[in-house]
């Protein structure tokens, strides 16, 4: 077996890497959103502007048997790195995972990273029971659980129309007239880029991070626009709703659902919903998510479910999601090791 860097121009290796993901999804979490071949291939040639990425495959007798993605922040949190490590179900317990893990750790060390993470499926409450093999593998190699996120799924029509209208009316009443609700599809309107960059910069300071040692990152207009360019190149369309404080003109709450430009793909993905601490208590989070849900149904009629994950301790957002009809599927454990 050899580990080689994945060349995006090598169609056979790209197909092999995707097949590993497809087979692992079928074996480990078939209830979760399936990997998307087009999105995967486009991601290889459209890296995010604020991360350095590397892709490797484990090849045995000409067959791709494992896949490793490495992400390293390149603007802030330069001590940190993460990876996705997947071994084809038919080639497990043969040392492939350990070889890929060793490759990841050596790669991260060589680039000065001192804290790295890998994640794996976990069972949560009455959700789907998940195999503990991934967790045991990481613990065997010295990783410790740093953050648990709960994966939930919501049908876009989970609420009956009357209940949804009632929730929306009450949320609008709680928000009052202090806020202008603005929605769009695709790129952020140019006049909102600066204020959106400001609120995006608060995310790591506001969301629960467990034992992860991450500092808030500064998002500027250049990064904001570069991320929009990448979404367009990858066929990802955000559907977004924000609350702008009328007195200050600043966006103080934000939510977005990310959809694929593929009518046959029935899943969409809830991004971070955040409300400026100074403007909490007005039910802005619920209001924005309800408005945005209607936009998803209207503009992406093929989408059947929206997926979200929240830290297990993020009670306020979990409460909103339960009201909207989100149901537990499983959990993701982010395991950390110090190098």
What does this structure look like?
This protein is an alpha+beta fold. The chain has two domains: 2-113, 3-Layer(aba) Sandwich (Aminopeptidase); 154-327, Gcn5-related N-acetyltransferase (GNAT) (Aminopeptidase), CATH 3.40.630. It is 35% helix and 31% strand. A hairpin with a 2-residue loop joins strand 2 (51-60) and strand 3 (63-73). The chain starts with a strand and ends with a strand. The relative contact order is 0.17.
Number of strands: 13
Beta percentage is: 25-35%
> What does the average pLDDT come to?
97
Q: Which CATH C-level class of the largest domain is it?
A: Alpha Beta
- Subunit organisation of the chains: single chain
Biggest β-sheet strands, sense, barrel = 13 strands, mixed
Structural class: alpha+beta
Going by CATH, the homologous superfamily of the largest domain would be Gcn5-related N-acetyltransferase (GNAT)
Total domains: 2
Rg result: 20 Å
Helix-strand string: EHHEEEHEHEHEHHHEEEEHEHE
Summarize the structure.
This protein is of the alpha+beta class. Helices cover 35% and strands 31% of the residues. Strands 1, 2, 3, 4, 5, 6, 7, 8, 9, 10, 11, 12 and 13 form a 13-stranded mixed β-sheet that branches.
Sequence-ordered SSE layout with sheet pairings:
Blueprint: E1 2-5, H1 11-28, H2 37-45, E2 51-60, E3 63-73, E4 80-87, H3 96-110, E5 115-122, H4 133-140, E6 144-155, H5 161-175, E7 179-185, H6 193-200, H7 203-206, H8 221-234, E8 236-245, E9 251-260, E10 267-270, E11 274-275, H9 284-299, E12 305-311, H10 315-324, E13 327-338
Helix pairs in contact: 5-9, 6-8
Keywords: Acyltransferase, Transferase
GO molecular function: acyltransferase activity, transferring groups other than amino-acyl groups
Protein name: GNAT family N-acetyltransferase
